[in-house]
From TrEMBL:
PROSITE patterns: ABC_TM1. This is ABC transporter permease. GO terms for biological process: transmembrane transport. Residues 120-310 form the ABC transmembrane type-1 domain. The chain crosses the membrane at residues 53-73, 124-150, 162-179, 238-256, 292-313. PANTHER family: ABC TRANSPORTER PERMEASE PROTEIN, OLIGOPEPTIDE TRANSPORT SYSTEM PERMEASE PROTEIN APPC. It comes from Streptomyces luteoverticillatus (Streptoverticillium luteoverticillatus). Keywords: Cell membrane, Membrane, Transmembrane, Transmembrane helix, Transport.
Length: 322
């Protein structure tokens, strides 16, 4: 990440020295008319608010999170109750958008609309849990490797290469096939066990670049300890690329969970998941395509929303794109 403290002018140099002594993130000088220092994060937030893709994706993600946390706000129908008198016979009815008949029924007579609403919880939970786990694990490994260097970097990099060489889907399937009851935390743990390597590489490269900055050298000269330098000086300035990668990867993990569930190796019944519903609908796609269309459509919208959010965050945090 570029050293944002290297801005021409005496005021910018003074701001950089103050940030190093106080152990804060580097700041850049604001325009002379305001006379106030402005951080990289405040600049990024200002750009994000002006980005229509961020606004659209943010609203979609908020709606999906509300749907996952409080599905009863959107439907009062039990998604597990089936009525075989429907059994594909009831096609989608668009009169009442909150009706159980809005999306039709699956082969067991269960409301597709209710299952789409309740399926958001499991799918998004897996994506969020995996993203948090890989960010913490990969970020810690990458920070230690990039900061200490030498034999520590060599050992951790070789371990990362070993995990990076394991195919993600194949390794996840090998792990999950040994579990008969695959709940959310089981699937998330299996995916996180193999998915932290990209974050580790990104964090390592960012830390190597950041630790050579002048404010880190100044903090070390002032007697700051290793922990303070790593978490007060380096981490705030090295975390931006990791946030971008993690945000984009979150949508990919949701899609990966759906793929594993479609293959019968992800979440298992009675858990409600978009991947499970897509798998159940594959045999009737010709005669009743609506059974697969709605859960697949929600999956695509969710993944697209997180990818759009990640792209917007990348544009805001990368100074080269300003």
């Amino acid at each position: 990440m570029p050293d944002v403290t290297k801005t021409p002018g005496t005021a910018a140099e003074s701001a950089a020295e103050t940030a190093a002594a106080a152990g804060e993130a580097a700041v850049v000088a604001a325009p002379a008319s305001s006379g106030k220092p402005r951080s990289l994060w405040s600049d990024a937030w200002r750009d994000l608010r002006r980005n229509p893709f961020f606004v659209i994706s943010g609203l979609l993600i908020v709606l999906l999170l509300v749907m996952a946390l409080w599905p009863s706000l959107f439907t009062s129908t039990n998604p597990r109750n089936g009525d075989l008198t429907h059994h594909f016979l009831t096609k989608p009815e668009y009169g009442d958008v909150f009706s159980a008949d809005w999306f039709g029924y699956d082969k067991q007579g269960r409301s597709i609309y209710a299952r789409v609403i309740y399926g958001a919880r499991a799918s998004i939970s897996v994506g969020v849990l995996v993203t948090i786990a890989v960010t913490l694990l990969g970020g810690l490994v990458g920070m230690i490797a990039g900061y200490y260097g030498g034999w520590v970097d060599s050992v951790l990099s070789r371990i990362t290469d070993i995990f990076f060489g394991i195919p993600f889907f194949l390794g996840s399937m090998v792990i999950l096939v040994s579990f008969s009851d695959r709940k959310v935390w089981v699937v998330a743990a299996a995916m996180a066990f193999l998915g932290w390597t990209q974050i580790a590489r990104v964090m390592r490269g960012s830390v190597i670049t950041t630790k050579q900055s002048d404010y880190v050298t100044a903090a070390r000269a002032l007697g700051a300890g290793t922990g303070r330098i790593m978490f007060r000086h380096i981490l705030p300035n090295a975390i931006a690329p990791v946030i971008v990668v993690a945000t984009i990867a979150l949508g990919g993990y949701i899609a990966a969970e759906a793929t594993l569930s479609y293959l019968g190796l992800g979440l298992s019944e009675p858990t409600i998941s978009w991947g499970i519903d897509i798998s159940d609908a594959k045999d009737s796609i010709r005669d009743n395509p609506h059974v697969m269309f709605f859960p697949a459509g929600m999956l695509c919208v969710t993944v697209l929303a997180f990818i759009m959010l990640g792209d917007a965050v990348r544009d805001a945090l990368d100074p080269k794109l300003r």
